[in-house]
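[audit] Reproducing an earlier prediction to check determinism. Same input, same settings, fresh worker. If the C-alpha cells differ from the archived copy the diff job will pick it up downstream; this log only records the rerun itself.
[audit] input (300 residues):
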Amino acid sequence: MYIEQLKKMKVEHVLYLFVIIGFLAFFGLNVVSTSLSGSDTNALINSLIDSFGKNLTFVILVGPLSFLCLGLLFWVRFVHKQSITSLTTARTKIDWSRIFFMFGLWGAFLIVTILISFFIYPEDFVIEFNFQKFLPFAILAIILIPLQTSFEEYFFRGYFMQYIGFASKSRAIPLILSSVLFGLMHISNPEVGEMGLYIMIFYIGTGFLLGIMTLMDDGLELALGFHAANNLITALVLTSDHSAFQTHAIFKDISESTSLTSMYLQVFLVYPIILYLCAKKYGWKNWKENLFGKLKEIES
C-alpha cells in the first residue's frame, strides 16, 4: 500500500522533520512578512512584470518550486535511500498511463469550460494570442510547470503524507493535514486578495481531491496528472490581471470580478464526478478503510 511505504525502511525522524518543518516554516514566515508589510501580491507581480516582462517574472515565480522538486527527489533518493518509484506509487513501476489519463481528462475539461464561457460571455474575454510571445512562454511553461506541480504533489501527497501516516499510524490524519496545508500554501495568491478568504474552500477542497485520489489509487500518478494539467492548461489558455500566472496566454479574462460560485461548483459537483469516474475505471473499493483506517503492517 502506498502510504505504508516507509514501513519497509529505517525511518530517520530528524531528517523528515528537518524538511517538513523547514519548508512549512519558510512558507509561514513568508506569509506573515507579506501580511505585516501590507504588501499587495498582485501589485508586486505587476511590478515584476514592469521590470522584467511576463516571461522572466513567470520564471522568478515558478522557478524556485521547480528546482525544489529536483532537490526533494535528490534528498529522498540519496539521503533517505528511498526509491523515487516508492515515493510515487505502490506499484512496481510508475504508471504513466494514469498520469496521462488524468492530464487529458482534466485538461479537456478546462479547455471546454473556458471555450463555453468565452462563447456565452464574449464581453468578459479578449483574445491576446501572439505566436512570437506565446511560443517562448509555452516552452518555459511546459518545462517548469510540471516540475512545480510535481514538487507540490511529491511534498504534500508523497513525502509529507507518507511520513505523517507512518508517525500517526493513521490515514485520515495525513489526508486532512496535507489537504489543509496545501490549501493554506495558496493564501498569498492574488486570487485570495481579489475574492477573499472564501476561495480557500476551493484550494483546500482541491487538496482533499488530490489526497483522496492518492490514497484510493495507491499512488501519486492521478494527482500528478491532474495538478500538471490544471496549472499548465490554465497558464497557456487563460490569464487575468488578478491571477498568480499573468502570462502570454491565448485568452485574457477582463471581467471585473470572478464568481466564487463556479469554484464551489467545481469542488462540490465536478470533483465528486472525477472521483466517481476514477473509481469506475480503476475499481476503487473499501473507501472507509482506505481513507480513515489504520496503516497496515507489511513485510519489509
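[audit] rerun output stored. Observation attached for the diff report: The longest strand covers residues 125-127.
[audit] end
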